[in-house]
Predict the structure.
Amino acid sequence: MSSIRDRLLKSGIGPNKLNLNRSCVVCGRPAFGLGELCALHRNRRKAHGHPKIRSGLRVKEWRPILPTVLRFMKANPPSAEALASVGRLIDPGNAPTPSVPRRHPRRLLYEELCHWQRPEARKSAKVKRWNYKPRGILARLVAAQVVLEEQERRFPGAASEIELARTLCSMFHRRERASGKRKQRLSGSVYRELADRIRSSGAAGLYILQSARGVIRQRELEQLEIANRPKKPQPPPDLLPD
Ligand SMILES: [Zn+2]
């Protein structure tokens, strides 16, 4: 299969004229097609968002928002349908048939979700107050969505759903590798499969979007209230000494 780049070059248009000598903005290798990334970084963007974005969403970015989210959720509780939909998000479901290859995204996701069912996959509730009930998971996804929407330009397009998937994964310990001490890295296709589940999760997805907007409004009001707070009265100037 020839790339757009090859086809354009074959048609006799010089590479300079078409600006085809571009190199990848990340690594400097020749860019793929007419894009600004090489084939490798183009693939990475599909899984993890734009590679120039140095880091994905971190837990410490959304955790401070959690109390506001919990207050919001108390006033606007999720429907039973939304909570059930969160349960389905992390439900392994039926095992793929043996004909599904070992590295197939569906199988990888199934194995990961089975791992999440085990108590040792869960992080200590004492240290960081993790909560694995559907409501707890939903609250963390809403908090993450607040940051994603407040920093829209940092997470363009599908990147925000991948980040929600990563947030979900960050709630669980990775599996040990069979061979050594190092933890297994999650394949990009697991994030993509999970992002797909979140995107098509109906009631949960809707609740996440609507609540995030509600929380953002609430945060704006709080900021405004702090800004408009009357200044503390100044203490009277010291009386001049006689
Ligand atoms: Zn590159």
User: Anything to note?
Assistant: Residues 24, 26-27, 29, 37-38, 40-41 surround zinc ion (CB under 6 Å). The chain has two domains: 4-48, 59-225.
